[in-house]
Amino acid sequence: MADGQIVVSGLTKQFRRVRAVDNLSFTVEPGRVTGFLGPNGAGKTTTLRMLLGLVAPTAGNATIGGQHYADLPDSLRVVGAGLEAASFHKGRTGRDHLRVLCAAGGLPYQRADEALEMVGLTPAAKRKVKGYSLGMKQRLGIAAGMLGDPAVLIFDEPANGLDPEGIRWMRDLLSGFAKQGRTVLVSSHLLSEVQLFADDVVIIAAGKLIRQGRVSELTDADGMQRVRVRTPEPQKLLAELKAPGTAVQTEDDGALLVTGIPAAAVGHAALVAGVELHELSPQRADLERIFLELTSGKAGIR
Amino acid sequence: MNRIIRSEWLKVRSTNLWWLMLIGVLAFTAIAIAFNMLTGYVELNPGTNQGVPDVSPESIATNLYTSGQYFGTLLAMVFGILIFTNEFFHQTATATFLATPKRTRVIAGKLIVAVIVGVIIALITTVLAVPSGLGFLASQHVDTFLGNGDVLKSIGLNWLAFAIWAVFGLGLGALLRSQILAVIIGLVAMLIGQTVIQIGLGLMAHYFHADWLNKVPNWLPSGASTIMTSPGGANGIAWWAGALALLAYGVVAAVIGTVITRRRDIS
């Protein structure tokens, strides 16, 4: 069993009327950032809570390095987790929150200061959490996860409430963790986020697995090549773009979106037509669109 | 186990709870001392009160030395309730159970902290009540009774009361989980529930000619507490039976609360 590998198999959770997680199976590998993606209410948080022994599964299994979380002798040294930005006592300082966890996990108090330093919260260490912004609470949650210097990191929606700079910081931090060989599992309901910081992605909707794979595979598998091209004389260019299988759409800003031929072929067509080009850019398949297609009709309120 | 006790102790120390408790204990004890001195003065100087039955100086001394027991035990119980229900009220249960996945250990740690705090409250009230009581009795030229066995026993039982009420509160909190509900039920059980039930049972006993119903209130938490803190027992029941009854309430509530907490989904 690979150290730090997360294995979810046949995991199911039935709340009174709702099957929040339905026979879900996937694996998460060390050394990579895995995005756990799904619309709101897809069962992401319930899955993570089952993985962490907080919610009892109705059926199935979830293990970390081959063990159930509750059986880990020194849980904080093996797995670091941050689940909700709201789950702090508002009248306690950030530093004391971490110290309480250090004490429970058998870690020296010094780890609390080191973790605060790592997430850039040292100036706010002795302030009560009620004075923290959402972004600061997210950082405190990450710091809590880092206390035991664990091989596995699990964060639920860590980018919620972060500003663009914070999101970039988060991306660098997570990919840094993965480069050190740690397992990093991060949930999100926003594709743009996952696209930013994940290597792999597990997509679920309505509690079921939709797709698991590398982010790059997923976008390439879309197969549709699209090229965006802008010219002051679109009609002349259009006349040259007549190859079979080629389709052209006109965008709102007047640019043409060409499907079916590579960018080089579009450039050649422009040369033949003798038109001036202001833009010629191949478009990467948009994960957002794939995501919406994959999960359409499965999201929403259950 | 040491880890969890350290962690739970730090939880108490790192919020407003501890000094709010301290202020409460100091204030209520001061009020109780003043009240007991006043009644003691009235009772020791019969000239100022006609018709009040004579009270033994010994029981006046006991009262003084255990000043603050009534509200102090109440605070100990509320403290017990709060250290458990805070985890859910402030949603810190997630972090707590991630750090200590064995939930029974968490509750055991809280139980020990509750007992420690109960004893600390007892220590504070005793440190305030005994010297001030001694001073008062000396000023009234009355024996201090400090060498008296029953008086010393009362002081000891006073300490026991604080610890057991804290355990009772923790059990109640673990059982109900809702902070507001647990505090209300705890206070009602301690303050007015006893009287209401006593009157109700008294009426029923009269109506059904079932005399045993009159004995039931002795075994309710606050009745048991009264018996526990009387060195000679009360209503024909020994002090230790009262202590065991109150402890049983706390332990049963804590055990059921533990079973529920172990199974409960933390979300």
Automatic annotation (TrEMBL), chain A:
One of its GO terms (molecular function) is ATP hydrolysis activity. Keywords: ATP-binding, Nucleotide-binding, Transport. Signal peptide: none annotated. It comes from the Bacteria. The keyword Secreted does not apply. The keyword Transport applies. CDD domains: ABC_BcrA_bacitracin_resist. InterPro entries: AAA+_ATPase, ABC_transporter-like_ATP-bd, ABC_transporter-like_CS, P-loop_NTPase. It holds the Pfam family ABC_tran. Residues 6-231 form the ABC transporter domain. Belongs to the ABC transporter superfamily. This is ABC transporter ATP-binding protein.
From TrEMBL, chain B:
The keyword Membrane applies. The chain crosses the membrane at residues 16-38, 70-90, 111-137, 157-176, 183-208, 237-260. Signal peptide: none annotated. Pfam families: ABC2_membrane_4. It comes from the Bacteria. Keywords: Membrane, Transmembrane, Transmembrane helix. PANTHER family: INTEGRAL MEMBRANE PROTEIN-RELATED, MEMBRANE PROTEIN. This is ABC transporter permease. It comes from Actinocatenispora comari.
